[in-house]
């Protein structure tokens, strides 16, 4: 399954939503999508989101927690605490 990374581009003259860059239309493996999203967050980009191209997505505080290692991201784009026992 491929994952896509997008964020909000803000121009100095007006705010508009657009793909983060040319890579936004490129499909990533999950680990690569997370690394790309974390890089965008480190650059100060806003509204960074990973989607599966369908209905599932992760962004906001959950994505930030995954980038910081406080949570882990699952294949269905759910953030789970790193200390959660399996099956919870």
Q: Could you walk me through the main structural features you see in this protein, from its secondary elements to its overall organization?
A:
By secondary structure, the protein is an alpha+beta fold. The protein has helices at 30-42, 60-68; strands spanning 4-8, 46-51, 57-59, 71-73, 79-81. The model is unreliable at 18-23 (pLDDT under 50). Helix 1 (30-42) crosses helix 2. The strands form 2 sheets. It has a 3-stranded antiparallel β-sheet with strand order 1-2-3. A two-stranded antiparallel sheet has the order 4-5. The longest helix has 13 residues, at 30-42. It has one domain (4-81). It is built from 2 helices and 5 strands; from the N terminus they run E-H-E-E-H-E-E. The radius of gyration is 13 Å and the shape is globular.
């Amino acid at each position: 399954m491929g994952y896509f990374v997008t964020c909000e581009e803000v121009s100095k003259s007006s705010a508009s939503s657009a793909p983060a860059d040319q890579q936004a239309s490129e499909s990533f493996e999950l680990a690569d999508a997370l690394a790309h999203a974390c890089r965008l967050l480190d650059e100060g980009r806003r509204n960074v989101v990973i989607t599966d191209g369908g209905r599932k997505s992760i962004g906001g505080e959950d994505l930030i927690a995954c980038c910081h290692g406080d949570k882990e991201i699952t294949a269905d784009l759910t953030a789970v605490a790193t200390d959660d026992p399996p099956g919870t």
